[in-house]
Specification:
By secondary structure, the chain is mainly alpha-helical. About 65% of the residues lie in helices and about 10% in strands. The chain is built from six helices and two strands, in the order ααααββαα. A hairpin with a 2-residue loop joins strand 1 and strand 2. Helix 2 packs across helix 4 and helix 2 crosses helix 5. The chain starts with 6 loop residues before the first helix and ends in a 9-residue tail after the last helix.
Length: about 160
């Protein structure tokens, strides 16, 4: 016969189920979001994140972009090279120091961000047709709260579209 669960174990089980249920949903949403961004933008979520950072933060060194995105410099360098080759980013000399290169969003990069956003909007907006404005606002508010609470523990998001 299996041992009887203690009261402490019984109390932890519902909490664990609640947390694990939330994590499963977030994971499923993340996988779905990756697919939406992959089909909306050839370099997917990573490419969109880098372009968004370049748009939001302006000219930055690759190491600064990497720090903002919470990835290694080699990973960011690979993304920047790919996006530069595609004409979406450009490298320019840093102000006051000819040894430093900055990464800058190109006009083509701005146009590509807008195209990707339009594609994502066209794909997702119909899914919200039967949601009320309050439904969308409520979900957005709950997600904002979760992001805020995670940030308070030191967890911060990458750049967002």
């Amino acid at each position: 016969m299996a041992p009887t669960a203690t009261r402490a174990t019984q109390a932890v089980a519902p909490e664990r189920e609640r947390v694990m249920g939330l994590l499963r949903r977030v994971s499923e949403l993340n996988l779905t979001w990756r697919e939406v961004t992959r089909t909306s933008f050839p370099t997917g979520m990573s490419g969109i994140a880098v372009l968004n950072l370049a748009e939001q933060r302006g000219d930055l060194r690759v190491s600064d972009l990497a720090a903002c995105a919470h990835v290694g410099v080699s990973t960011m360098s690979r993304h920047v090279t790919e996006l530069t080759t595609a004409g979406l980013l450009e490298r320019v000399l840093g102000p006051g120091d000819g040894r430093t290169h900055m990464v800058r969003l190109t006009d083509q990069g701005r146009a590509e961000i807008e195209r990707a956003r339009a594609t994502m909007t066209a794909r997702l907006a119909p899914l919200l047709d039967d949601w009320t404005e309050d439904d969308v606002d409520h979900l957005a508010g709950r997600l904002d709260r979760l992001i805020h609470d995670l940030a308070a523990t030191g967890v911060t998001p990458e750049g967002t579209p």
